[in-house]
Amino acid sequence: MTIEEMYREAVIRKFESLILLIEWLVYEKGVSMERDSKNISFVCEKYGATLHTELAHYKEKQKRRGKSSLEQYLK
Predict the structure, then answer these.
(1) Where exactly are the structural domains of the chain?
(2) How far is CA 38 from CA 15, 21, 50, 51, in A?
(3) What is the pTM of this model?
(4) Rounded to the nearest 5°, which phi and psi values hold at 66?
């Protein structure tokens, strides 16, 4: 399963935390949507203790920016 497929599923099921994580990976870390979703586990291990803080900062950025660009991409 690709990250894009996982993102689509997360949007359908309204998994907000997973949506936020994927958007952070794509916009802040430059991860391609075509990569295997197993990369998400690697990132969680790599950032471990700081991931929550990183996502909180990104969520604030997202609020200022408005609707997610990736969600618009999926339509």
Answers:
(1) 3-74
(2) 17, 13, 19, 17
(3) 0.80
(4) 100, -150
Tell me the CA distances in angstroms from 8 to 5, 23, 45, 72, one per residue in order.
5, 12, 23, 11
For 24-75, what is each residue's pLDDT tens digit?
999 888 999 999 998 888 888 888 889 999 999 988 888 887 766 665 555 5
Cα separation, 28 vs 43, whole angstroms: 12
Helix 16-29 to helix 51-65 angle (10° resolution) is 90
For residue 45, how far is the Cα from the chain centroid? 15
The one-letter code for the residue type at 70 is L
Contact 2, 38 (CB under 8 A): no
Alpha-carbon span 52 to 42, nearest angstrom: 15
User: Can you tell me the distance from the alpha carbon of 45 to that of 14, in angstroms, rounded to the nearest whole number?
Assistant: 24
Give the N- to C-terminal CA distance of the chain in Å, as an integer. 20
